[in-house]
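Researcher: Please predict.
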Amino acid sequence: MRKILQTGLALMATVVSVPAFAQDGGIDQAVNDAFAAATGPFVNFIFAPIPGTAFPWIVMWLVIAATVFTLYFGFIQVRGFRHSIQLVKGEYSDPDDAGEVSHFQALTTALSGTVGLGNIAGVAVAVGIGGPGATFWMILAGLLGMASKFTECTLGVKYRNEYADGTVSGGPMYYISKGFKERGLPGGKVLALLFSVFCILGALGGGNMFQANQAHAQIAGLVGDFPGWITGVIFAVIVFAVIVGGIKSIANVTEKVVPLMAVLYVGAALIILIINYDKIGWAFGQIFEGAFTGLGVAGGMVGALIQGFKRAAFSNEAGVGSAAIAHSAVRTKEPVTEGVVSLLEPFVDTVVICTMTALVITISGVLVSDPATGNYVLNGSSIQTVGDVSGVSLTSAAFAQGLSWFPYVLAIAVILFAFSTMISWSYYGLKAWTYLFGEGKTAEMFFKVMFCVFIVIGAAASLGPVIDFSDAAIFAMAVVNITALYFLMPIVRREMNSYFERLKSGEIRRFKN
């Protein structure tokens, strides 16, 4: 362990100096080119399209798994939805159960890791390329993804480690190694190690550096340009103050920040929809018609489907396995309860927040259409927009059509999204780290400090290929995780049937009404 820490500290001392060279374009470009050359094949493989199509195979991998789990568990997202609300409200919560956080806190911690720029910029990209019809397929993929969350989060609680001091560690690395051993299957340890490595890479990149980078861009857009390391240091101090206290401290923050983000963002969207209430029916008509005709967008119906499925998969991360780490910390002795609670995560992330974004963009009129045909006007492979904006700028422009002050709200939302994503992914990376190197205060503190150092780097440096590689690592987690879920899903069905039978018989009792 001492050698690992010494090596890690030396690495951190090296990488923390990277921002100092940011002004030297030659060095910066040389590093980017070398990193891209080294990681390019892996990135290209993960996001490669299925031959003869533009559909990334990793998205198909996630959607097929979600469909299989939906059918295998008898549409659990429908049957368990009402009960998930009861659990979040604490109606079945025994305060004496093992665990560190409540059902609501576990849900908000997991949500804070998924609700973010994907709901703002990603949806705008999907609608900008696939048209409003992409929203239909996005909602469908979100509903299917609820079953994937149920599967992984049930296993996360069932196979977690519970320690004498009351802390717990869980997630795919634990249920893969323990579940495979229980079923007499080979390869569990190898898959668990692979998942942990990918999780750490994803946590430091997409769950950290990218968030810091985008937060700095938003702040600089409001107050004017200034050195990124200043934003990085401020974020690093605040994040460290939260994560140093562990999952309880993280949950205490997320249970306040996530509802605030939802009220802030969804509230602004509702104001726009109320102002334009007469267009809501038309917007849904555009969504349903565009889902099956394309309304003239590039690729037609298939183009809308690809963009919708892709955005849902990248937004709610159902099947990736990350959320199971947060849900594993819940206070319960019934694994299925947290699987049921996790159903709400893709619903809130994709069905509610992403749909709100898509509706506002559709209603706002920022997508240019031909009055004669009703079809959207194309600019290359994407829809022509007012002011030629895309991504976050498209969402901002759409909201600004009804609320001139919304760009300021959006900037605050992006900063909150970035902050909440960082603290959640710090916990995911930490649990993968301690799985590899062992539990202990020294190992934990080392990772937390390293995580905060990378915040400064992310805010100050030009990331480029680093983020591409990190995103690929996050979806490589899904390759490992879903492979394991197929082998372990009979265990989940056994747990599910037992739980709902006991719930129906009254053996599982309510603690409050």
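Model: Residues 234 and 354 are 29 Å apart (CA to CA).
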